[in-house]
Every structure is written in structure tokens, then in C-alpha cells.
Amino acid sequence: MSGLKPVREVAIIGIGITKFGEHWNLGLKELAVQAGVKAVDSAGISGEDIQLIVGGNMSGGLFTGQEHGSALLADYLGMNPTPAIRTEGACSSGGLALRTGYMAVASGMHDFVAVGGVEKMTDVYGPQATTALAGAMDYETEAYFGATFPGIYALIARRHMHKYGTTRRQLSMVAVKNHENGFHNPYAQYRRKITVEDVEKSAMVADPLRLLDCSPITDGAATVILAPADIAKKHTDKPIYIKASAQASDTLSLFARQDITTLGATVHAVKEAYRQAKLSSKDIDFAEVHDCFTIAEICAYEDLGFTKKGNGGKLIEQGETALGGRIPVNTSGGLKSKGHPVGATGIAQIIELVTQLNGEAGKRQVKNANIGLAHNVGGSGATVTVHILSRDR
Amino acid sequence: MSGLKPVREVAIIGIGITKFGEHWNLGLKELAVQAGVKAVDSAGISGEDIQLIVGGNMSGGLFTGQEHGSALLADYLGMNPTPAIRTEGACSSGGLALRTGYMAVASGMHDFVAVGGVEKMTDVYGPQATTALAGAMDYETEAYFGATFPGIYALIARRHMHKYGTTRRQLSMVAVKNHENGFHNPYAQYRRKITVEDVEKSAMVADPLRLLDCSPITDGAATVILAPADIAKKHTDKPIYIKASAQASDTLSLFARQDITTLGATVHAVKEAYRQAKLSSKDIDFAEVHDCFTIAEICAYEDLGFTKKGNGGKLIEQGETALGGRIPVNTSGGLKSKGHPVGATGIAQIIELVTQLNGEAGKRQVKNANIGLAHNVGGSGATVTVHILSRDR
User: Which of A7, A17, A234, A6 is nearest to A112 (CA)?
Assistant: First the structure.
């Protein structure tokens, strides 16, 4: 009795995503329904085949007043009495939804499971959005004292620069690369290329992080359809297999960590993911990582094992994570350019992986994309999920 | 490939619960930690054995500003890097946590899983609590127009009285019975007996529902420890087996239902639960049902199959659901007397079932308690979970 080994293997047989951006005419449920209907269509099944809905959503309550969002989605998709579960782990709510859906299929309890993520963030004004997002921190030890996420990640950036010589220019190059990629993604919020100078002239938010170091406030939804691997090929020519579904926790408070330049939960989760998939970081062809701020992508390179600790800045500078580099990262545009509807982000990353693995990414296609990794972070790293997807079972 | 059959059977090997009530000196995380530590102790394992935490919480965001509650719990329990998932389905968040934890064990991914529920409701003033709870409704079609949950359930009560002749006295008798039971429950919020007259003289809230028809605002937490059935007896002499874990959805809005006196999701979920357990309503020895209002318990009698539709009022009047009756209901005191910390309620119901099945319920013990049922409702019935527990595997 060892645990940590799924009894049934699981595949992704369909995907659906909305345009990411400011959707003044669409609410929480309209966004979720749009992505859900697309995903069910693309899986070649009917809504009646779905046996469970799992929906990631960070804070319907604080952003819109609406809790109970997954049942609302079942309702507006016309899918009653199909059961629906909401998962939440701040900005990793989507990753948690996928892990929950994965276990639901692996357990034998459900065959077809719709796993979605959604956030409607633009119905509140700026400070209120910042307050809602602060719910991802340890409220009593961070938010009460005025901490904001740009401030938290600025501390991480300063320490990384001090300890490892990471430069302002290297931070900027992350944003430039991600906007370069997002330019080719029709679902991205900001489809425009930017320069290092643009980043460095943009408004200061929390020194050293400037506006163009920060992911935006975004509305959007994304859905994938899961099925047991054994029957996936009956429904699609191109099933994508989930080879690992791993998760770890860390302190919510930054002050409680031994080393703030490392996200311990990323290190733990990716180790477990590589163990499940029987792979190492060298086997990963490309990745979607959680670049809520430019410094977060640099830390992720290191914590995921794409380079050694402290070398993340050089990795971006040497072009290794650009399209055509050794390990392309955030070909979707990442959170920076594609946008960051917090509850949807984890699923949007999976959709980019599936699109790349199926060779359908157009001008941002990674050559020989066989194995992809998705890295989704809640808060400043208190929750991290890592999924590894493969074209081959 | 049929689905809906767990690959591994699952048992409960430990329980822990806080006193329910107004905890002015304890916050969200202190309550959750208290219940979690008790449960781990009672399971005879150590915190390091836990491989996953699943925590039900309806609205940490609107009640306390704190989202990301499950990772916070892992943190304050000293359990990093153990993964933690929050589930939410309004007042059925606890039931969803149990279903999610159940699938995590059944899937083979995790052996020991801590499943908890928590709500800290008294940090906000009354109207703000009502607003938070309204997040369980379809916000745009109900809450915006001034609907409150007492108002919604008052509509159900009026219709039930009109259609089936249910009486004011029968409603009162539900509250009287539950306070009778809660008097003997050391964890209950209101340990005092009340009379039919007390109920009928209490303040009018939403005609015909009076104050003593309504469950209260409560702080509290509850946790159970799950393990694969195959190894349960290594850890406890008295494992309790989960024979069914079922869930269904219905419209959030009351106006969208054909018959507001029936909770369709209860009917669907219990049918699936009886199928999974290979049992019928006649096999159930006792039950914890979701009596958020007295009328809800009467509807539950009918929808769960304990009596025919329309006969729920007579069931309470004939004493059949009292301790010593044919099918004792809410021996814990129910939501009415024990209290209703919304995210914790679904797990607290499970703890009463385990306590009864183990013969440890003292003066409220049901004789020959072999099979118990728990019924947890989100909103006015948009999400319902039904679990069936047994002493025998």
C-alpha cells in the first residue's frame, strides 16, 4: 500500500478557452459557459456524457459576490444534476481543479470530467482587486500590515539580484520574450511586442518591479475534458496523457521562509512530478511557468531544474527559454502577455501544452514538442502544482 | 468502462471537532488546527503520515478576507510540504471536501488524507454575514433583488403547507427535537431544551419562519482522517467504512424549479448513494440531514425516501425521527442546535455518524446503529452530497 500511484491513467480529450482580457459584457458564468461549451465540442462528446465538473476559482466572493460557482456553471450549462465541485488555492485554483479532476477519473468514480477555471476580475475597482488578491497571503501577518503582491515579489527580486547578480535587464527580457510569444496567441490579452526600454521606462510599482514586470488584471475562462486513457482514442485522434499530477505547500508568509529566492513548494512538487512521470528536467521539451511577475519566471527556471540555482537570469539572457531555444518557456505569452484571470490560469497553461503537443500552435509552435510541463503557483508560493503532459501514453 | 465505482475502498480512522459557537478568541486557522490535531491524534498516526489535506470552507474571503485557507492550514499545522486543496459548494463545502478526499484515496494517489471543514462567521456583523451567505444563491437573479435564505426557505415552507397541509406545529417540533438531542451533545452551540411555544413565540424572521426555525451563525471546525479500507484496522479497532459518496446539482434559483417543495439534487444524490451502497432507505438506521431551517428537515425526510412526499410533517409529529423512533434524525442536534459553521457542517455530520456507529454517543446513542446517512445541502439545494457510512465493510 504505497499511495501516489494512480489506479487508472488519465488523458485530456478536449480543450476550450475564451479570449483573455477585459470582458465588460460577460460575467463569471458567461465566461465559464463559453469555455465549457467549446471544450465539450472539441472532445466530440455531449454535455450529458460529463459525470463531474471541477471548477477552479480564486475569489468569486470578493470579486463578484458570487460563491457556489461550480454549481452555477452546471446550472447555466444545462447540466443538472451533474455534480460540480469548486476548488480554490488562490492563483493555483486551476491547477488544483486539474489535480482533483485527475483523481476523480483515476479513482474510477467518474469517466468524463470537465475541469475548468474562471475569474471575473474587472467588476471591482483597482484597490478592491488588490484586497481580493491579498486573500492569497497570510492575511493576519502580511495583508494587515499593508503588503501587496507586487511588494512581496519585489522583495524576492531584490534578494535575487543581491544574492545572484540578477540584473534589471534580465527581468525585462522575461517580459519582452513573453510579449513576443503572446503576439502570436489569439487568446492573449496584450498582443503587442515590447522592448527592454519599454519595460524600464514603465511606471514603478514596487522597486525594482515596474508595470511591465507585472501580470495584469484579467477576465477569462478555460476548460479541459478528462477521460480514462483506455478510452481516449475512441473520442479523439490526439489524446494527451497526464504523466504526473503533483502538488506541494509552503508557508504563506514570506518572512517564515529560510530562503525567499526559492519557492520550496515548486522544488517539492516538481520532484514528485518527475518521480511520477519517471522523467527528469532534461526530458521536458517546453514549459508554461507561473510568471505573475518577471522575477517569478526566473525563480521558476531554477526551482524546476531547468538551470542551477542563481543562474535563471543568465538563462533568459542566453535565449534558452525563447522559442527556438533549448527549453521554450511560456510560448502562450505567459501570465504577463496572455493575461492572468487567477482561477483560470492553471487550466490555460494546460491548454497551451495540449495545443503545442498537438502541433497546433501556429507561429509559436515548439518543434518536436513531445513532453510539456505546467507550473501553477498560489500566492507567493504557498501552493504549487506541477503537471507533466505527453503525446505518448 | 462504467465509472462510478471506486477502485479502492475507503475508511474513516479518526475524527476531531471543536466546540461549535461564538469563538471570539479563535480565528479561522486556530479553529481548523484544533480540529485537525484532534483528528490526527484519534487516528493514531502522526501529521507526517498525512499525504493530502482537503478543506471545505464556504467563504473565508467574505467572512474574514482570507482565501487560500487550506494551504494556511497546512502551514499552521506544521505540515508543509503536504498538499492542500480547498473545496467550496456553499454550505455543502464540507460534503464536497469528503467526496474529494474519498476520490483521492480511492484513486490510489494518496493513502492518509485529512478532510476538514471550517467557518469563522462571527468576525463580521449580521448584515455582512447575510451578504456573504447570499453568495450561495444565484447572485444576479436572487440576491440582487433582495432575497435572503430565510426568505427563500419561507417560500418553500408556505408552499409545503399549502400543498401538503404541513402545520406550524410540525415545523416547531423539528426545532424542539433537535434541541432535545443537542442538549446531550457537548460540542453543540445551544445546549438548551425548547418547547413548541418557545418556537412559536420567537421573533418572526420571514413568515412563516421564526427565529427558532433558523440555524444560527456559528464558528467551528471538524476533521476526519481517511485511509484505504485495506489498512484501516492497522490503525484503529473501529474503522468506519464509506459505502457511498454521491453528489448532484440543481438550479441555484428557486424560481427555475418545477416544484419548490422537493430538492431535486437530494433525490438524485440519494438515488446514486443507495445504488453505490446497494441499499435502500429502509436499511438506514439513522441520519444527519441538513436542517438549515425546520422546513428543510421535513423536505429532507421526503426526498431521502424516509417517508412519501408530503408526509414529512406527520413523520416528525409521530415521533419517528426522534431518538428511539424508527429512524432518528439529527441526533447531534442538527444545524439548529449544534450550530451551522457553513463550511464545517458537512464534516460535523460525518463525525456524528462515526460517533454513533462506534457506540460512543452517550445519552443520545441510537440503538443498533449500523448504517448511517449524511445529507449536506449548498444554498437552497443547488449542491447536495449524500454519504452512507457503515460499521461493516
Answer: A234
The answer for B368, left when phi > 0, alpha when psi is -120 to 50, beta otherwise, is left
Provide the CA A308 distance to its chain's centre, in angstroms. Answer: 23
With CA atoms as reference, the chain A residue closest to B90 would be A68
The sign of the CA dihedral B196, B202, B205, B207 is positive
Look at residue B2 in the predicted model and tell me its pLDDT.
46
pLDDT digits (tens, 9 = 90+) for A194-223: 999 999 999 999 999 999 999 999 999 999
Rounded Cα distance, A317 and A306, in Å = 14
Nearest CA in chain B to A276: B109
SS3 B351: helix
Return the beta strands (E) in B96-235 as ranges. 113-119, 204-206, 209-210, 220-228
d(CA B212, CA B203): 8
- Give the confidence band of A2 by pLDDT, cuts at 50, 70, 90: very low
In a mutational test of the A interface, the residue from B2, B7, B67, B77 whose CB has the highest number of chain A CBs within 10 Å is B67
DSSP B240: E
- How many whole angstroms from its chain centre is CA B103? 19
Q: Which residues pair with B373 in a beta bridge?
A: B287, B388
Chain B residues close to A253, C-beta within 8 Å: 75
Q: Mean pLDDT, chain A, as a whole number?
A: 96
Kind and range of the H or E run holding A73? helix A69-76
Tell the residue number behind the cell numbers 486513457, with chain if given.
Answer: A229
Which chain B residue is nearest to residue A112, measuring alpha carbons? B3
Return contacts of A148-152, CB within 8 angstroms, 24+ apart.
A148/A206, A149/A292, A149/A293, A149/A379, A149/A380, A150/A205, A150/A206, A150/A209, A150/A214, A150/A293, A151/A206, A152/A254, A152/A380
Q: Does domain B147-211+241-388 have CATH number 3.40.50.920?
A: no
Please indicate whether, in this complex, the C-beta atoms of B89 and A70 are within 8 angstroms of each other.
Answer: yes
CATH number for the domain whose boundaries are A145-186+243-388 = 3.40.47.10
Domain segments of chain A as ranges? 145-186+243-388
In this predicted structure, what is the pLDDT of residue A1?
Answer: 38
Class of the CATH-defined domain B10-125+218-232: alpha beta
Residue A101 has pLDDT above 80, yes or no: yes
Q: Which of A3, A5, A75 sits opposite B382 (nearest CB)?
A: A75
Distance CA B65, CA B85 (A): 18
For B248-391, where are the alpha helices, taking DSSP H only? Answer: 264-277, 294-303, 312-317, 334-338, 345-357
For chain B, which ranges sit under pLDDT 70?
A: 1-4
Output the pLDDT for position B3.
57
Helix (H) or strand (E) holding B172: helix B168-182
Residue of A58, A85, A99, A149 to mutate, interface with B, max B Cβ within 10 Å:
A85
